[in-house]
Amino acid sequence: MSIASIFKSRSRVMWTLVALAGLYALGVLSLRLPLGRIASPGGPAPPAAVYEASTGAGEVKITHFYPKSGSIFRGDSTIICYGVQRAREVRLEPPVDAVWPAVSRCLSVAPAQSTTYILRAMGTDGREVSESIRVEVGPAPPRFVLFSTSNPELARGEQLTMCYGVENAVKLRLAPLEMDLPPVTKHCVRFGAPVSGRYTLTATSAEGVTARQEFRVRLR
Fold it and tell me: Over the stretch 170-192, which tens digit does the pLDDT of each residue have?
């Protein structure tokens, strides 16, 4: 390589560095990567590692904070998502999982009761902003976890075997026989079907919510 080519290459590098320094000084480009948290070559970056590229200087901002579903049944979970700009630290109250400044991140929550979540974001200038969301938790409805019957085609006088399992129920009734059955997670019963047609198991929760399981019987 000639001396002239080397000189031209070094000149281009120098002017590039000068241009980047000018953009940084004007606040058009900002780069923040905490020391001591840089991942080893070839390994994943630790969760708290932050890379931020933004246009211009400004105050800390929460860009979004919302639940995937604002109403769930007890025992279920939902997803909450958040995003911040120009934040050095974020906190979630009540704490659920580790959180850190991110353009967009989601995490799973499973509150046992209706809960208000507060996201707090702290900027490099010490200012703090916050937003809140609420996840309503309702009583779990009854549901059938098991159901099966023997051959639904019966000779007259023959009995049908039915096995079932139900959760979150305090009452269980079989129609049209108007037969009360124990609302348990596993049980089998035999009965004679007086007529062909549709039979219905209705489970009722303590709050009066119902769930139904239907089947048909045919008499030969």
Answer: 999 999 999 999 999 999 999 98
